[in-house]
Amino acid sequence: MNPAALLDFLHALAQHNDREWFQDHKATYDRLRADFEQDVAYWLRELVQDEPALAGLDPKKCIFRIYRDVRFSKVKVPYKTHFSAYFAPGGKHSELPGRYVQIGASGQTLVAGGLYEPTKEQLAAIRQEIDYSPEGLHALLAEPAARQFFPRGLGGEQLKKMPPGYEASHPEANWLRHKQFLLLHELPDAEVRQLAPAAFRAHMLAALRALGPFGEWLGEASRGG
Length: 225
Description:
Radius of gyration: 19 Å
Largest sheet: 4 strands, antiparallel
Number of domains: 1
Structural class: alpha+beta
Number of strands: 4
Shape: globular
CATH architecture: 2-Layer Sandwich
Strand order of the largest sheet: 1-2-3-4
Helix content: 40-55%
CATH topology: BirA Bifunctional Protein, domain 2
CATH class: Alpha Beta
């Protein structure tokens, strides 16, 4: 996949987000989508080596549609302005921790992982693990790969106040307020454009792989063990 060519197409799509323009450029979209599918298949093959539970996933079914569901949205443009895919045991709609890759113009290129919408049970179990034994999370976020790709540490939406049962003075108060548990690696457009296709694919794979220990920790914590 040529990341610069994909950014060019997605930037133009953002400027002309309508069905007529998209149909006029459908051949370009189809070619870029096929190239993206090849990279997704490559990333999945490599990630299976680290996470065997991903085996059996269909790369095409890991990819999100570019068509937006506008039924309940105030923004009625019909197309997303990024390509994206999600790798998690059970597929892209899994409730288990997963890894997400997104490529888009105007700063939309990123790799992320964790739990975006944990269930109430998962949320309670993760907070309990942070309360009882935060050392594991501290250690994995201090690893060289985590510091390289996710220097801002744990991200995601947080409560304004402490959740019930936890004091504001808790040493891990910042983590306990989290409603989402995410690590994020963003690439500015200029950096994406500087990378050759093979280098871009390798960079994204390295970031996806760096999420592995965090996903393992979340998986164990969210199961209560």
